[in-house]
């Protein structure tokens, strides 16, 4: 089998957003390498080890439609205002997905929530585990990225029993499925990517919650407002779609926004502050989650 590699060459400041972009578009793995021949000197405590010009490489399944992927990448970097050189090339067969899955171990988020590869179990000493079995497939969302981890930790900390949730930009369905496993009454997953909807459906079936999860494309009507809306997407899209996303939340309902770099938090909060009482952002590895409650 042949795989498809996408390379984006850009500056240091853009690399975290490009890494997140590839994961969001369904990359099975993302790596960062030096675009030149820059020596990597000893860093100060807390300083990130990264080159000033970086190649961000996403590995995609070989049957990924190359023109569609290229168009999606170019559209996204245009929205982000990032200058980046894009190349796509085939990669001959190696068992990349199996190698990646071998490094995907059971992970705990909060007190009870566990994300576990579908062929494994949480540790025997886990206390009252709520388990989501996951095959990320071709969509972003395994729990390994800080943006997803922040969302899972937030969900575990909330009382969502019986509530209706919307997962805007559902990816692999991990957040909607986790919410249903934690007691949500129903969930709606929304995504513009058909591969994401397929992965979400498969993961929901394997977790026994498909009957409570509805999946739809992003331009389809949503229906009634939700008790909780969670959106783990790019900050620029959160800002552009603030009115649309905010309108999905009922008055008094909750919102949780992620996919946001710490320096983007103020702009995202400004876009939602008119309708929501927002909490202090939660931060992890330079990424933040912004949560709040709709006031009108």
Low-confidence stretches: 36-51
From N to C, what is the helix and strand string?
EHEEHEHEEEHEHEHEEHHEHEEE
CATH class of the largest domain: Alpha Beta
Number of strands: 15
CATH architecture of the largest domain: 3-Layer(aba) Sandwich
Largest sheet at a glance? 8 strands, mixed
Number of helices: 9
Q: What is the approximate shape?
A: globular
Provide the domain count: 2
Helix content: 25-40%
Q: Could you explain the architecture of this structure?
A:
- The chain is built from 9 helices and 15 strands.
- About 5% of the residues have low confidence.
- It is globular, with a radius of gyration of 19 Å.
- The protein has 2 domains: 97 residues, Alpha-Beta Plaits (2-Layer Sandwich); 191 residues, 3-Layer(aba) Sandwich (Rossmann fold), CATH 3.40.50.
- It starts with a strand and ends with a strand.
- With 296 residues, it is α/β, with parallel strands linked by helices.
- The strands form 3 sheets. Strands 8, 9, 10, 11, 12, 13, 14 and 15 form an 8-stranded mixed β-sheet that branches. A 4-stranded antiparallel β-sheet has the order 2-3-1-4, sandwiched between helices. Strands 5-6-7 form a 3-stranded mixed β-sheet.
- Helix 6 links the parallel strand 9 and strand 10.
């Amino acid at each position: 089998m042949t795989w498809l590699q996408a390379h984006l060459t850009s500056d240091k400041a853009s690399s975290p957003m490009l890494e997140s972009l590839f994961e969001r578009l369904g990359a099975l793995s993302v790596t960062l390498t030096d675009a030149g021949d820059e020596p990597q000197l000893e860093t100060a405590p807390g300083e990130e080890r990264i080159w000033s010009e970086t190649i961000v490489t996403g590995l995609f399944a070989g049957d990924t439609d190359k023109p569609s992927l290229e168009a999606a990448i170019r559209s996204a970097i245009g929205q982000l205002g990032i200058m980046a050189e894009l190349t796509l090339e085939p990669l001959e067969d190696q068992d990349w997905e199996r190698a990646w899955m071998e490094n995907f171990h059971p992970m705990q988020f909060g007190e009870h929530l566990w994300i576990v590869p579908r062929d494994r179990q949480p540790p025997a000493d886990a206390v009252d585990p709520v388990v989501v079995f996951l095959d990320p497939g071709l969509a972003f969302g395994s729990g390994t990225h800080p943006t997803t981890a922040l969302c899972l930790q937030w969900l575990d900390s909330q009382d969502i029993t019986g509530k209706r949730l919307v997962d805007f930009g559902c990816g692999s369905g991990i957040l909607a499925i986790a919410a249903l496993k934690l007691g949500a009454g129903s969930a709606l997953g929304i995504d513009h990517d058909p591969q994401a909807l397929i992965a979400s459906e498969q993961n929901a079936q394997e977790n026994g919650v498909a009957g409570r999860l509805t999946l739809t494309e992003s331009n389809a009507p949503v229906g009634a407002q939700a008790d909780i809306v969670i959106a783990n997407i790019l900050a620029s899209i959160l800002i552009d779609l603030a009115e649309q996303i905010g309108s999905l939340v009922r008055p008094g309902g909750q919102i949780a926004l992620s996919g946001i770099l710490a320096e983007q938090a103020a702009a995202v909060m400004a876009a939602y502050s008119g309708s929501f009482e927002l909490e202090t952002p939660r931060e992890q590895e330079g990424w933040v989650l912004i949560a709040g409650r709709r006031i009108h």
